[in-house]
Amino acid sequence: MEAIKPQLEQEAIKAQVRQYIAANFLMGANAAELGDDDSFMGQNVIDSAGVLELIAYLEQTYGIKVDEDEMTADNLDSLNGVGRYLQRKLGGARA
Amino acid sequence: MASDVTCSESLAARAPDRLAPSVLDIDCAAESARIAARLAEIVGRVLRRRGVVVAVSGGIDSSVCAALAAKAFGRERVLALLLPEHDSSSDSTRLGRLVAEHLGLEHHIEDIGPALEAIGCYRWRDEAIRRLFPAYGPGWRSKIIIAGAQGGLTYFKLVVQSPAGEMREERMGAQECLQVVAATNFKQRLRKTLEYFHADRLNYAVIGTPNRLEYDQGFFVKNGDGSADVKPIAHLYKTQVYALARHLGLPAEVCNARPTTDTYSLPQGQDEFYFGLPWDKMDLALWGLNHGASAAVLGRAIGLPEAQAERVYADIRAKRRATTYLHLAPQLITPL
User: Fold this and answer.
1) CA-to-CA distance for B160 and B176, rounded, in angstroms?
2) CB pairs below 8 Å between A and B: how many?
3) Which of A70, B73, B164, B284 has most Cβ atoms within 10 angstroms of its Cβ?
4) Which helix (H) or strand (E) holds B146?
5) What is the pLDDT of residues B40-87, one digit of tens each?
6) Stated pTM of the model
């Protein structure tokens, strides 16, 4: 059961972020079409100003501070990336 | 000058295996004659105007545009405007006047600082800056710099200098970043308002001064410096603009000046604000991308590892996507 819990947390985070992106960047388009590994920038979902908005959302929603060296495509440019990053960050904060 | 190819098949067939600054060489005499002839044709026959207004900043692009306009229309049909504000370098006005006098152009100097104050440009900007640096106020200076362009995601930092000279910097959040940029955009938009005032009263057209790098990468303010009736050097790489400047005999001080934005109170190069690489390397990268040169070829040309050169290409593509909106005319629900 313990091994399943982080996976569930990550899925919950991804669902929440997907909802945020649908409401703020897709403007009514179908968010289900956004794949978990799709690049936000590559798919024209968000641009560099959008990245800043996404960071502000993550910082406010999850009570974290995104450090400059964490501002990478691996961490912030896909749903899976954001999910993994937040899980690491939140897990680290709690440890 | 070679035209850019767009068909991927052609790119693969003609992809250069070597990239050198010489790919940007042009026949300056022929090119300046061609531009002057096209300018006269466009303004006279298409736009049906009697001359042109050009705002000169003292920078290389507007200086070359002014010189080309003088060549196309004669100096008596070109009005040069110098439009400094509170954060402009005194060098800008000095160099702008130098160019206008060198070309023998009628020129007006109009300080737009008081109008910008009245409209709230500095107040809105400073309010956003104070969210990051609460002590920011009179005597402080600021600028925005690009960060993380190579390797990470692009973001912006605000750099401030206290009256005592202490420098500090902080990553900008979305709201602060957008507000500072929106406020400073008043500068380019107010300048364009004045350019069109003079164009209207003289029945002239307005010249836009972007070079190819700026035009391609969306380095302009929509309805600000991006607005114009004709853009005579938008097809020329910056390297080629410098070559034309020398050919047209512009003052050495103008030909040798480092490109700046002249928009923020701290000195700011275009490379640290927007492009991430010096203009001569950006020129080669843009040319390489347009002509199908591989990242390995680009890397060898500009002294970067292949992976980093690939990120330069990715950044150029990303800026094209992100700034598409700047180029678009108002969209209609039903095309007419």
Assistant:
1) 14
2) 48
3) B284
4) strand B141-147
5) 999 999 999 999 999 999 999 999 999 999 999 999 999 999 999 999
6) 0.87
